[in-house]
Specification:
By secondary structure, this protein is of the alpha/beta class. 20% of the residues lie in helices and 22% in strands. The chain has a single domain, classed as 4-Layer Sandwich (Purple Acid Phosphatase, chain A, domain 2).
Length: 286
């Protein structure tokens, strides 16, 4: 790779507790060999936020030996201890707390966090995203403070597209966030949650915003095998390559659009989103 390029690895939805160890070993070897300038992990480190899952996640992440930023996913909030969920939701990140929602500054480029996982919300499904005013203002302030000419990659867990109805909205206030990000030097929004990669452009009233999603490194695959994104930035263009053990081409690894509810299918025959079908030997685990 030319020295004037920045190399980033974008991982998501590792789900320790149901992790794919073969995929994790491969990714760790790739990180050790390629030494990316930074690794962005966009949430869902664990399956049920259990202590032993966080211990495994902490060990794996803190031994990567490269700069890392970690977003909080909906699966990383305590499931079974509501007191802890409401009053100390990040306690189980102990051991990697310095990496949580960490901004990373690189030459001409910065990774800026935007929290979308919340402790509770006034709708039944708490797994969905929510951009609070405080979280958005914190993100925008970090972008606005960047040196002139610096581009931003915004790291979130949930894709920001808002489809306009309370019952099926992917991320509450997602449209508002995209409108604000479109006013700023944002290269792309990096996310996870849907377990399949994508690279789409969302049009807003203030201009377009690129949305890049990473797949999963767990056994909870949906439409494509476990994967991660390799991003290259040369100061003018951001290139995305979806890396996977099955050597499936990048375009065939990407779903055509973000599903409205970003949830697994209720029945094996239910479609999640328009996808390019990938031959596989094992059925996905739902």
């Amino acid at each position: 790779m030319p020295s004037d390029q920045t190399l980033l690895f974008h991982l998501s939805d590792i789900h320790f507790g149901l992790e794919d160890n073969q995929a994790l070993d491969w990714v760790k070897q790739e990180i050790a060999a390629r030494q990316p300038d930074a690794v962005a992990i966009t949430g869902d480190l664990t399956m049920r936020a259990r202590h032993h899952e966080f211990q495994a996640a902490t060990h794996w992440i803190t031994t990567l030996d490269v700069p890392v930023t970690v977003e909080v996913g909906n699966h990383d909030m305590p499931y079974f201890n509501l007191l802890e969920r409401f009053f100390a939701p990040y306690r189980r990140f102990q051991g990697m707390q310095d990496l949580v929602e960490k901004a990373i500054d690189l030459p001409g480029l910065a990774i800026v966090p935007l929290k979308t996982a919340v402790r509770a919300q006034p709708r039944f499904n708490w797994s969905k995203g929510w951009v609070t005013d405080d979280a958005l203002q914190k993100c925008l302030a970090l972008i606005d403070a960047l040196p002139a000419g610096t581009k931003a990659l915004v790291a979130v867990h949930h894709p920001l597209r808002e489809v306009g109805t309370e019952g099926t909205a992917l991320t509450k206030n997602g449209s508002k966030a995209l409108q604000e990000l479109a006013k700023r030097p944002v290269l792309a929004v990096l996310s996870g949650h849907v377990h399949d990669a994508f690279d789409i452009v969302e049009q807003t009233g203030n201009g377009p915003v690129r949305m890049i999603g990473a797949g999963t490194l767990s056994k909870r695959t949906r439409s494509t095998p476990p994967s991660f994104n390799e991003l290259r930035w040369d100061g003018a263009e951001l290139q995305v390559t979806v890396r996977n053990l099955d050597d499936v081409a990048t375009r065939d690894m990407m779903i055509d659009d973000v599903p409205e509810d970003a949830m697994p299918p209720r029945n094996p025959g239910d479609p999640v989103a328009p996808v390019r079908q990938i031959p596989r030997t094992d059925p996905p685990v739902s």
